[in-house]
Predict the structure.
Amino acid sequence: MNRDDLLLFKQWFAGYCASFYVNTSDEEDMRNLVLKEEHTAHVCANILKIAGEESLGAGDAMIAEAAALFHDIGRFPQYAKYKTFMDSLSINHGELGAKELAGTGILNSLPVHEQEIITTAVKFHNAFKIPDLVCRDAIIFLKLVRDADKLDIWRIFSEYYRKDSTKNMPSAVGLGFPDTPGYSRKVLDCFFNKQLISLAMLKTLNDFKLTKLS
């Protein structure tokens, strides 16, 4: 990959996002879609910082940034069709993103190995656990994307949970969980046993908060 490829990808992604904006007149839908474009910009910045700390070469850093750029591409058609970012109520946005990349052919100018790395990072960035992958390079870039993604997710939710901030945040941030007192027993058990918490266990916004702490 070279800088011209990366510039093309950024221009294409901006146009991809814009294609969803022009198809909605609903203010709240627009806020939720813009949230994902802004999130993507933060994830790209995060991954470059991590790549620098890990002493990745310039070429690998560009591959990492491209993977970050496309990691949530599936969120746009997901929200356009289902009006939610909750995969369990709609579709797996990582898998959808990988299909979008393949369908658009935007990566076709890259060597096959680089295409596979980026597509794999997009497909599995939201997996509950990192899958067994034969390609070591794919695992490295997948981990980079997952870390860069989670760093910004913490930023988004820390803003969302501040007092009265939910009035100004896009509605889809809370995934529709009710803001009621208490926590679910299974969620608490996982938390205190230092286990990952599955989204399928969640009942309330408090449960959702514990997933971030876990």
About this structure: The CA atoms of residues 42 and 152 lie 6 Å apart. The chain has a mean pLDDT of 90. The chain has two domains: 3-160, 177-213.
